[in-house]
Design a protein that fits this description.
It is built from five helices and eight strands, in the order ααββββαβββαβα. The chain is of the alpha+beta class and 183 residues long. It has two domains: 33 residues, no CATH class; 126 residues, OB fold (Dihydrolipoamide Acetyltransferase, E2P) (Beta Barrel). The chain has a five-stranded mixed β-barrel with strand order 1-2-3-6-5. Strands 4-8 form a two-stranded antiparallel ribbon. The relative contact order is 0.16.
């Protein structure tokens, strides 16, 4: 529950500060009260940051990497701020399936933090699917773990909190069937 309040507050602050307006607690409270169930941020997982470019997910590589089409061109995208077990590791296929269930074949919005690409040439992005940040959803569900990769650290605190709650709740790869997945 604490994570939901924190993430809702963060989402409200992003809405207000994204417009270049000063943030007042009364303004945030109004936004939170006015947010209907099912709206971005009400699921406990924040919406991706504003902006970005539209893409269609064409292939799931693993739990933290996808392939997308942008204007007919194919790109590999590595989710920012998380790491998934590999296929041959404990819980690897389950993490990949969770990623597929979330974004396969879907239209998404890709949002850059600081870096354009990683050392392998993959785009580094936050992935917004239906106004939910897929990066945070996969961490919150326990299929991937939050990891910090400076300088792309805008949502490190949010991802770490989601990861801690997934671990404490025994969700996903933190569950008894997959003990050791993140060791």
């Amino acid at each position: 529950m604490k994570l939901r309040v924190y993430l809702s507050l963060l989402g409200a602050m992003l809405l207000v500060t994204g417009c270049g307006m000063p943030v007042a607690l009364d303004d945030i409270a109004e936004i939170l009260v006015a947010t209907p169930p099912g709206a971005a941020g009400s699921t406990g997982v924040p919406a991706a940051p504003p902006g970005g470019e539209r893409a269609t997910v064409t292939r799931i590589i693993d739990g933290d990497t996808i392939e997308v089409s942008i204007d007919g061109e194919t790109f590999r995208v590595r989710y920012i701020g998380l790491n998934a077990p590999e296929w041959d590791e404990v819980c690897g296929s389950e993490a990949t399936q969770a990623n597929a269930d979330l974004v396969a074949g879907r239209e998404v919005t890709l949002v850059r933090d600081v870096s354009e690409t990683d050392r392998y040439g993959r785009l580094l992005r936050y992935v917004d699917v239906d106004e939910v940040m897929a990066n945070a959803q996969l961490v919150a569900d326990g299929w991937v773990e939050a990891n910090s990769y400076p300088p792309d650290v805008t949502y490190d605190d949010v991802l770490a909190e989601a990861g801690a709650e997934a671990r404490e709740g025994g969700r996903g790869c933190w569950g008894p069937a997959w003990r050791g997945a993140f060791d």
